[in-house]
Amino acid sequence: MSSRACTENEDKGESLRKISALSPTKFWIVILCLSLVISLYFAIFGSPISFRNFFNSLTDERKKELSNELRLKLVSTSESQLSLLNTPKKRKYLMGINYSPKGAYEPFCLFSKEDAIRDLSLISTVTLKIRTYGTQCNQMEHLLKAIDILRLDMKISMGIWLSNDEIRNKEQVDKAKEILLNSDTTIIQSIYIGNEALRRGDISEIAMISYIKDVKSYLDEKKIHIPVGISEFPSSVTQNLVDSCDIVGFTIQPFLAGIQSTESAKWSMNRFNALKTQFYNGKTHFAITEIGWPYQGGEFKRAKASPSDHKTFMHSWISNSAKSPTEDWFYYEAFNEPWKIRFNKEPDTWEAEWGLFDDQKRPRSDVQFVDGDQR
After folding, report:
1. What residues form the membrane-spanning segments (predicted)?
2. Engineering a disulfide at 231: which of 54, 95, 289, 305 sits with its beta carbon 3.0 to 4.6 angstroms away?
3. Which residues 6+ apart lie within 8 Å of 312 measured at CB?
4. 109 near 103, Cβ under 8 Å?
């Protein structure tokens, strides 16, 4: 045996003697610390019995069943909400809803297929149409797979996010083209480019029209028939921009206009009809891509963010819009987004309170949905 091996054996023997010399109290402290380290490891990185690994091991059919079970546990079991969950698939209460997946932000990209399954299981209780904002973090791929697994007759209005970063913009557009080439395009109902990028001043109108033409040209080349357009505040829209689009979506927020909840539905529809008349060209379709009401958090001019005002808006808007079933509209938004708290201006705290479901994915307890098919 080499001198190195002898030294190693002596070191091991010394270590064993030190451990055996520990008092019972110190011994159990060491064991406890080791257990804590092991527990933290599995909590962070998962284990064979962690939920995600367990979920991944299931068949697609069992994933669907488990998602439905989780959905029932996520919401209150009050009679009104159970009736909402048990609503037949052809009777949905919202025409569509804006959906920004939690965790679908670069560079972390924490959004997964399992997250998509759980979210769409819940969203599908109120609508079968969603509008997304970007293509990053494989969110579209996860959503399309979730729709397939859950066997939903769901449609997506795909968003392509544009900013003042031309490299990122190209990545967004290239990713969208890849998705369109490799996916079931019958699920993708429309494409909205650059959500409010003009209002933010991130790009020019000329650049926006260039992106629109690029995507439309690609679709024509691949013989894919999907309308392409923009989603903007009305103040950022021009006739030249409208004429370059197949579809134009307007952000119409009565709360941000300071309209009282009792007048909000009528004001919103009048505003939309006026915009359609103003920009009519005989070929471009119009939609409301964002309309909603914060659940709580203060007020803005005459508009109040409270459960009762939220309920008033929801009831009146759904009843009002049901009179024009051919109009596309998307409720803003599916889930609360806590990160928007940074935009709050005290004493008002409504910036992160626009979700139909809160940040724990629970439905707003006071909302009474009007019976009506908005599909």
Report:
1. 27-46
2. 289
3. 261, 262, 264
4. yes
What is the distance between the alpha carbons of residues 140 and 179, in angstroms, rounded to a whole number? 8
* Reported pTM: 0.77
How far apart CA 23 and CA 29 sit, in angstroms, is 10
Q: SS3 letters for 216-275?
A: HHHHHHCCCCCCEEEEECHHHCCHHHHHCCCEEEEECCCCCCCCCHHHHHHHHHHHHHHH
The residue whose two tokens read 């809160």 is 358
| Least-confidence region, from 226-240, 260-274, 307-321 | 307-321
- Quick check: is 159 in a domain? yes
What percent of the chain has pLDDT above 90? 66
Tokens of 177: 């083209």
Q: Distance between CA atoms of 128 and 324, rounded to whole angstroms?
A: 18
For the stretch 48-59, pLDDT in tens is 445 556 666 777
Q: Which among 374, 170, 349, 205 has a CA at the least distance from the CA of 291?
A: 374
Domain identity same for 147 and 270: yes
Span 358-375, mean pLDDT?
67
Is 138 a domain residue?
A: yes
How many whole angstroms separate alpha carbon 81 and alpha carbon 85? Answer: 6
CA dihedral 257, 262, 268, 271 (to 10 degrees): -80
Q: Which of 87-91, 224-228, 350-354 has the lowest mean pLDDT?
A: 87-91
Q: Are residues 140 and 28 in the same domain?
A: no
What does R_g of the chain's alpha carbons equal in angstroms? 26
Six token digits for residue 59: 């068949």
Q: How many folded domains does the chain comprise?
A: 2
- Sign of the torsion angle spanned by Cα atoms 77, 80, 86, 91: negative
Q: Are 52 and 114 in contact (CB under 8 A)?
A: yes
* Tokens encoding 277: 């008349």
Mean pLDDT of 90-109: 88
Longest dimension (CA), the chain: 95
